[in-house]
Specification:
Length: about 375
C-alpha cells in the first residue's frame, strides 16, 4: 500500500526523472502480487509500441469472474517482452508471514467485503451503474493463474520470501543494482534500491549513439533522488513517511501522539511543539516534510511516542524496515503463519469459487 497521500509528489518526481539506459542482462525484480493486479488492468507491452501499453483491451472484466486465458496471454507477453530486451525477469512473491500489519490486513478484509457485496448486487440484482472494475473483487484464482503460467515458461525465476517481499527485493536491488518493477511507494524509501513503476514501465528505444534498436530504458527512482528532488535529507524522508503514515504507523497518525526526542532518549518539549499540527497540515504533506526537515537537521533528533507503545514499536520497525536493519526482534502477526491457517485459506478460496459459480449461474438464468 505504501505511504499515505503523497502520490502527486511522486508523480512530480517521476516527471523530472531522466530515462536511464539499462545494461544488457540486467535483472528485473518484479513484485508478484502487484504485478498480478497490473496485468488485470493493463495489456502487456511489446516491441512494436515501444514498450508502452497500447490500451487496446483495457481491464479484464471482473463481473463474469474474469478471463483466465487473457490473463495467461498477458503474463507470457510481459515476460517475453522483457526477455526480448535482453533482461532477466524474476518474480518475487510475499511469504505467509508478516510483522506489524494486522491492522492493514483487517482494513483489506473490509475492502474485500465491500467488493464482494458489489459483485452480489451485480449478479443477483443486475446493478452495475457507477461500478468500476477495481470496485469488484478480482477473479478468485487470478494469482494462481499467473503462477501456473510462469511455471510453464523457460528461464523465469520465481522467489518465494518467508515474509513480505518488499524489503528483500529492495535489499537485493541495493546490493546488485538490479531493477525493481512494482507499484508501491515504499520502494522510494528503501535505502539504495532502484525502483521503476509499472505505469512508467521499461521502454524500448533506439540508442542514438550506437544506432542499436530495441534498447531498454527506464525512469529509475531512488530514495536519494527523491530527497534531492524535494531538497531534504534522506533521514527526513523516513521520519516523514512515519509521521504521514505507512502500513505500520497509519493506524496511529490521527491521534497526534508523536514527540521529538534527542539521541539520549529524553523528550524535548520545545521541539515537539514544532511538529506540524494535524489539523492545520491535514492535506499539506509537502509542508509537513519541510517542517520535519528543519527539525531533523540535527542528526540526533528523531520521532518518538512516549504514550503509545504500539506506535513506538511501529516507528522502530519502520526505520529497520527501510534501512535493512534487524527485524527479528519484532513479533510475527498471527495470520497465515501455520498449517491450520493455510488450510483455512484453501477452504476459503474454494468457498469463494463456489460462491462465484452460484452467483454466475443465477445471473445467467435471469
Amino acid at each position: 500500500m505504501g505511504i499515505k497521500g503523497i502520490q502527486q509528489l511522486i508523480l512530480n518526481y517521476i516527471a523530472s526523472a531522466d530515462l536511464t539506459k539499462l545494461a544488457p542482462n540486467s535483472r528485473v525484480l518484479i513484485d508478484g502480487s502487484g504485478w498480478c493486479f497490473h496485468l488485470l488492468n493493463n495489456p502487456s507491452p511489446n516491441l512494436q509500441n515501444g514498450g508502452k501499453d497500447d490500451g487496446g483491451l483495457g481491464p479484464i472484466a471482473r463481473q463474469h469472474n474474469g478471463d483466465y486465458d487473457l490473463l495467461a496471454i498477458r503474463t507470457k507477453n510481459y515476460i517475453r517482452y522483457l526477455q526480448e530486451l535482453g533482461l532477466r525477469p524474476e518474480i518475487w512473491w510475499d511469504g505467509s508471514k508478516t510483522k506489524l500489519k494486522s491492522k492493514t490486513h483487517a482494513s483489506r478484509r473490509e475492502q474485500r467485503k465491500m467488493r464482494m457485496e458489489k459483485h452480489r448486487m451485480y449478479c443477483e440484482e443486475g446493478i452495475v451503474k457507477d461500478v468500476q472494475q477495481d470496485d469488484l473483487p478480482p477473479p478468485p484464482l487470478f494469482i494462481a493463474q499467473v503462477k501456473h503460467t510462469l511455471s510453464r515458461m523457460k528461464d523465469v525465476k520465481q522467489v518465494i520470501c518467508e515474509y513480505e517481499a518488499d524489503p528483500e527485493m529492495a535489499h537485493e536491488s541495493s546490493k546488485t543494482d538490479s531493477i525493481i518493477l512494482a507499484n508501491d511507494s515504499d520502494f522510494l524509501f528503501f535505502k539504495g534500491c532502484h525502483y521503476v513503476t509499472f505505469n512508467c514501465g521499461i521502454l524500448c528505444q533506439k540508442d542514438n549513439e550506437s544506432g542499436e534498436l530495441n534498447v531498454p530504458y527506464a525512469q529509475i527512482l531512488t530514495r536519494s533522488g527523491f530527497a534531492k528532488h524535494l531538497e531534504v535529507q534522506e533521514k527526513s524522508l523516513i521520519e516523514w513517511a512515519i509521521f504521514v503514515g505507512n502500513d505500520f504507523t497509519s493506524p496511529f497518525v490521527k491521534q497526534d501522539i508523536f514527540h521529538v526526542i534527542d539521541a539520549n532518549q529524553k523528550k524535548n518539549e520545545e521541539l515537539t511543539l514544532l511538529l506540524p499540527d494535524g489539523d492545520e497540515y491535514r492535506h499539506e504533506n509537502e509542508a509537513k516534510l519541510e517542517k520535519l526537515d528543519q527539525i531533523f537537521a540535527n542528526k540526533d533528533y528523531l520521532l518518538k511516542s512516549t504514550s503509545n507503545l504500539a506506535l513506538q514499536n511501529a516507528i522502530d520497525f519502520s526505520r529497520a524496515y527501510y534501512n535493512y536493519g534487524d527485524m527479528s526482534n519484532f513479533d510475527d502477526d498471527q495470520n497465515e503463519s501455520n498449517d491450520d491457517d493455510e488450510d483455512d485459506n484453501r477452504r476459503r478460496e474454494t468457498s469463494n469459487c463456489d460462491m462465484y459459480l452460484k452467483r454466475m449461474n443465477l445471473r445467467n438464468n435471469n
